[in-house]
Design a protein that fits this description.
Number of helices: 9
Largest sheet: 5 strands, parallel
CATH architecture of one domain: 3-Layer(aba) Sandwich
Strand order of the largest sheet: 6-5-4-9-10
CATH topology of one domain: Rossmann fold
Strand content: 15-25%
CATH class of one domain: Alpha Beta
Shape: globular
Oligomer: single chain
Distance between the termini: 5 Å
Length: 265
């Protein structure tokens, strides 16, 4: 479940307020002093910190952009440098994959394609219809350095897969966008996995049927990585901007990319 900055902040504030009321009531019962609560981070200040982190600027076309010299871009570069070392090392020792071909798996939203313009334009409040239109417009830029990482992996004989929580109805927009953003790798149905709720694959039968999709993010992505490995690959690296992108195993290493703008449980 995706939670925007504003929604998460309001939820925190409500939790704190509830805790304060509970503490006050308890104090009147046992004559103890109310427990102090901690005021949550000010949303206005937090948005400013996020802007600074991304090096936010609005172009003449009205599109919000992140700077390639921003702290965000520098954090990405450090993660990618480590990943390239690991890819190179794994490619030199293919026997460790027990005869399977090495592969990496990438999430799409804010791992392969940057959604910062949507977050800024929507004031960090997620809306299903506006998000759907944004994805299908296929205008997102690549996350800094990720097309180069994919190209590096392919030069070392590593297969590349994309695993996204985007709906099957959003596949065309995602695939078109990935190609436009510079990902020079197969983007067919055997390499790009979306969340197909109307017709879930058999390998997700433990949590999804055409009548009821019950897979959470971890189950969906874990089950798909397991399927990829079953088809003859050893996933040497899994990349995502959410912890839920990476949990569940079926990857030798995981790489958490920064994303302070929303949370997917």
């Amino acid at each position: 479940m995706r939670k925007s900055l504003r929604v998460a902040g309001l939820a925190t504030a409500c939790t704190v307020a509830g805790a304060a009321l509970y503490a006050t009531g308890a104090a009147s019962a046992d004559q103890a002093r109310p427990r102090p609560t901690k005021e949550p981070h000010n949303i206005g200040l937090l948005v400013g910190e996020i802007d600074e982190y991304y090096g936010a600027s609005k172009g003449a076309d009205g599109v919000w952009k992140s700077s390639p010299d921003s702290p965000y871009a520098k954090d990405l570069a450090r993660i990618q440098a480590r990943a390239k070392k690991d890819i190179r090392k794994a490619a030199r020792h293919p026997h460790r994959g027990h005869g399977k071909k090495p592969a990496i798996v990438l999430d799409v939203d804010d791992t392969a394609l940057l959604s910062f313009d949507y977050e800024k334009t929507a004031n960090y409040v997620y809306d299903n219809d506006s998000w759907d239109a944004y994805v299908k417009a296929a205008k997102r830029p690549a996350v800094f350095g990720m097309p180069e990482l994919v190209a590096y992996a392919k030069r070392h004989g590593v297969e590349v897969f994309f695993l996204t929580g985007l709906a099957e109805s959003q596949r065309e927009g995602a695939v078109t966008n990935l190609a436009k953003a510079g990902y020079r790798t197969p983007l067919d149905r055997t390499h790009v996995f979306t969340k197909n709720k109307p017709n879930p694959p058999a390998y997700l039968s433990h949590c999804a049927t055409p009548d009821a999709w019950k897979c959470d993010t971890v189950q969906f992505k874990e089950g798909t990585r397991k399927h990829i490995e079953f088809t003859g690959y050893n996933i040497i690296g899994s990349f995502g901007d959410q912890v839920s992108d990476l949990a569940g195993g079926y990857a030798d290493r995981t790489y958490k990319l920064p994303n302070p703008t929303y949370f997917v449980g």
